[in-house]
Amino acid sequence: MKMKEEQFRLIKEQLKKLTSIDCFYKKKLEGVDVDSIQSQEDFEKLPFTWKGDLREAYPLGLQAVPDEEIVRIHSSSGTTGTPVIIPYTAKDVDDWAVMFKRCYETAGLTNLDRVQITPGYGLWTAGIGFQNGAEKLGAMVIPMGPGNTDKQLRMMMDMKSTVLCATSSYALLLAEEIAKRGIGDQIHLKKGIIGSERWGEKMRKRIADELGVQLYDIYGLTEVYGPGIGISCDHECGMHMWDDFIYFEIVDPKTGKNLPDGEIGELVITTLKKQGAPLIRYRTHDLTRVIPGDCPCGCKYPRIDTILGRTDDMVKVKGVNIFPSQIDELISGIEGASSEYQFMIDHLNGKDICTLFVEYQDGANAAALEYVIGNAFKAKIGIQVIVKMVRLGELPRSEKKSTRVFDNRY
Ligand code: ZN
């Protein structure tokens, strides 16, 4: 994708500022002559910023403005080791809400909507991001946070919530619970805004059907504001990205070379307006591609595909690269199989053994499904796996992002 003039101007301005004050990027970009950056190609030679760099800057090493300008911090989940702390200025908080409001508008929400927010509040950027955007729109927020399904459903019915904000696995859990309790006729939901966790077509269809809503994928990450930097539209053909706030590139995860539009690679983001903790060429580890051409909805913001996986979820078995999205796709084409699965890789007696657990629908023939899925896996992905069908609901559902691939080899 071609960098726009305005994006180039903002990037140059930011680089000048960051290399002139004492901050994280002054060190990171040591030896780079900002004046010599004259084109997109020059920009593409700048070093990447990695999550590890941000961890090393713990606690507040990323801060690029004086203390009195910082109004809040957020932190990425930090499941492995030191967390990353992102400081925000008042303008950062407001810019984020502006983007989030635009997401809601793209999904067709108005100030008459009632938005039930189930992602977590606190250090995590999710809950509060959903809330600030909804308030900016003028909608009514029902700030639930995660968990307590009884209370969630009660508020959903009594407050007549029209919009559910959730992770895909929590939306599925609520949808299943509504069906189980037979309370579908008391639910007023019209739309679901689902966090950027990668999820398959089958799961999407189940949630949409059971809740009777249209679903939108919202994209974002704590390091770059949080959720709300892009969202899918009614046409469900990728996510529009707010490229007046961020500049994005797709690079080959192995070589770091920029890829042409349409090719799958790693999403790399540069912030254009962020003050508290600007980022230059940040490696998100999310796999996606630029969708070329115009969207039928008429929106001019460029699109990326639904997140296809994480560069670090990609597993290599017997020389074959496997992405979770391939397994989603495979299962979604098989009648009687549910959307839920777990893929385990173990190393036994010198050999890699793969086991795929898949939930099946009541009444389906489990033995036949094991045979069909095993053959399809061999044919489409290229390796032999042991398939084990389990009953609907037996695999764990989580309120946060669910892990589906377990590599037990190391
Ligand atoms: Zn569109």
Write the layout of secondary structure elements.
Blueprint: H1 5-20, H2 24-28, H3 40-43, H4 51-56, E1 70-75, E2 85-89, H5 90-106, E3 114-117, H6 126-137, E4 140-143, H7 149-158, E5 163-166, H8 168-181, E6 191-194, H9 201-211, E7 214-221, E8 226-232, E9 239-241, E10 246-251, E11 265-271, E12 282-288, E13 290-291, E14 303-304, E15 309-310, E16 315-317, E17 320-322, H10 324-332, E18 337-348, E19 351-360, H11 366-380, E20 386-391, E21 405-407
Parallel strand pairs: 3-4, 3-5, 5-6, 6-7, 18-21, 19-20
Antiparallel strand pairs: 1-2, 7-8, 8-9, 9-14, 10-11, 11-12, 12-15, 13-14, 16-17, 18-19
Bound molecules: zinc ion.
Residues 233, 235, 240, 295, 297, 299 line the site of zinc ion.
Report on this structure.
The chain is an alpha/beta fold. The chain has 2 domains: 89-310, 3-Layer(aba) Sandwich (Rossmann fold); 315-407, 2-Layer Sandwich (GMP Synthetase, Chain A, domain 3). The chain has helices at residues 5-20, 24-28, 40-43, 51-56, 90-106, 126-137, 149-158, 168-181, 201-211, 324-332, 366-380; strands spanning 70-75, 85-89, 114-117, 140-143, 163-166, 191-194, 214-221, 226-232, 239-241, 246-251, 265-271, 282-288, 290-291, 303-304, 309-310, 315-317, 320-322, 337-348, 351-360, 386-391, 405-407. Helix 9 (201-211) links the parallel strand 6 (191-194) and strand 7. The longest helix has 17 residues, at 90-106. The chain is globular. The model has no long low-confidence stretch (mean pLDDT 93). Zinc ion binds next to loops.
